[in-house]
Amino acid sequence: MYIVMIASECAPVSKVGSLADVIYGLSRELEKQGNLVDIILPKYDCMCYDQIWELEIAYQDLWVPWDKRIIHSTVWFGFVHGRKCFFIDPHSDDNFFNRKRYYGCTDDAMRFAFFSKASLEFLLQANKQPDIIHCHDWQTGLLPVLRYEMYNTMSSRICYTIHNFRYQGITGTDILSATHLDRFEYFHHSDRLGDNVHPNVLNLVKGGIVYSNFVTTVSPKHAWEVRHTELGHGLGDTLHIHHDKFSGILNGLDYEIWNPEIDTLIPHHYNIETLENKYANKDVLRERLLLRKDFKPIIAYVGRLDDQKGVHLIRHAVFYALHNGAQFVLLASNTNDEFLHLKHELNDNEDCHLEIGFNEKLAHLIYAGADMIITPSMYEPCGMAQMIALRYGTVPIVRGIGGLADTIFDRDFSDKPFNARNGYIFHEADYIGIESAMQRALGLWVNYPEHFRKLIIQGMQYNYSWHHSGQDYLDIYKHITQVL
Ligand code: GLC
Questions:
Q1: What ranges do the domains of the chain cover?
Q2: Which of 32, 121, 159, 447 has the fewest CB within 10 Å, making it most exposed?
Q3: In the CATH scheme, what is the code of domain 2-252+467-482?
């Protein structure tokens, strides 16, 4: 099959979150399974150009009708660690992708509506005829709409994946005239792009759901949650209507990057047979972060600090760990006032280190050197940290929601067989909830080290590679190319 991925991020060239890892990992897997895959991305000024090989102009003059004019654009081509990527580069005063940042501009909806339209124009003008267009998140929500309402000479089928329902591309109706979807009332109708909560605005994700041939989110549990709970952020009804073309597919993990046997960013390699080397990494981690050497487990958090990730529970976990004989390490790519204050408060504590900033090498060392990791998210469509932790023999303590519930099975209460359990789960997003799970994990570590070791090994044996997910997506692609 010939598949074109269209997204606003791809690792490692333009990465803000795990969406980027999914675009790269899924594309590689689909190629491995014998398919042809192209990726279309915006050509941002702030991308990591040193991650692109042989960047050259692929299509000099792409003319994109936009508003009352035509925007002259150029399409570039280059390899990103083996993946074939096209980059859309518009030349206009709007400077859509030359903002020194990926997101966070007041005209984001316009920027990515342009990207969606330009991608389709490119496929058309360059005479590319993919069997499948797979697009992602709110940034490309308008693409399925445009494909069926305007580019209907194309035969490509569309799969649309929603990684985060909180961001739906809520925007004004000026997008319609800019993209030439001129029948204002028709498109604004609640059967199409009209938002379910605020009827006067458009919802691009809703448009993507209505118009795609198939819609997915990134875990089966989350697919249920967005239909049946407030986690659908107003789109539950739309998903009900379209439930026969909606499902959840768990993301995979790239074990070429996340594998303690070959990871070049950690000092001591290990696997199930050489688990003692994990503790050599623990020593290095302590030295690196100036933590004291003591008979204590290290509990870690790696990720963003925002409401989705449960900041109040992360903060609580720091103190709970310190008061209950553990050390705590945090690596967050962003921060807030509360954590800056906390960092200051705990500055001299030899059992704790809070590091703010993006640091890939340290992230790998933490996964390798810590004993447990916490992920107390308020919602988590899939989540990567828990899957990485498993492979590194770091026991996950997670909230039982979304992808976390699909990948982690509680040592004491899961209905999985005893030898298939791999971590700790709590349900309520409150202090008692997270304490109950941390207490059980700490108790096992201190009192039953052999059992703790067994739990580590069971976790390391889990395989959440892309292989399986890739096949699931291919089944969907096949299905939608066959039905009328
Ligand atoms: C979003 C979700 C996260 C998921 C990722 C990739 O960032 O919040 O749970 O793992 O997308 O699908």
A1: 2-252+467-482, 272-463
A2: 447
A3: 3.40.50.2000
Decide whether any atom of ligand 1 lies within 6 Å of the 20 Cβ.
no
Ligand 1: centre distance to CA 217 (Å): 9
Q: Which CATH class is domain 272-463?
A: alpha beta
Q: Whose CA is nearest to atom 5 of ligand 1?
A: 18
Atom of ligand 1 nearest to the CA of 403: 9
Q: Is 382 near ligand 1, meaning CB less than 6 Å away?
A: yes
The CA 19 to ligand 1 mean position distance, Å, reads: 6
- 425 near 465, Cβ under 8 Å? no
| pLDDT per residue as tens, the chain (484 positions) | 999 999 999 999 999 999 999 999 999 999 999 999 999 999 999 999 999 999 999 999 999 999 999 999 999 999 999 999 999 999 999 999 999 999 999 999 999 999 999 999 999 999 999 999 999 999 999 999 999 999 999 999 999 999 999 999 999 999 999 999 999 999 999 999 999 999 999 999 999 999 999 999 999 999 999 999 999 999 999 999 999 999 999 999 999 999 999 999 999 999 999 999 999 999 999 999 999 999 999 999 999 998 999 999 999 999 999 999 999 999 998 888 888 999 999 999 999 999 998 899 999 999 999 999 999 999 999 999 999 999 999 999 999 999 999 999 999 999 999 999 999 999 999 999 999 999 999 999 999 999 999 999 999 999 999 999 999 999 999 999 997 6
Q: Is the CB of 223 under 6 A from ligand 1?
A: no
Please tell me if the CB atom of residue 384 comes closer than 6 angstroms to any atom of ligand 1: yes
- The pTM of the full predicted model, rounded to 2 decimals, is 0.96
Q: Do domains 2-252+467-482 and 272-463 have the same CATH topology?
A: yes
Q: Could you tell me the distance, in angstroms and rounded to a whole number, from the CA of residue 277 to the centre of ligand 1?
A: 31
Residue with tokens 């700490």: 442
CA 165–ligand 1 middle distance (angstroms): 10
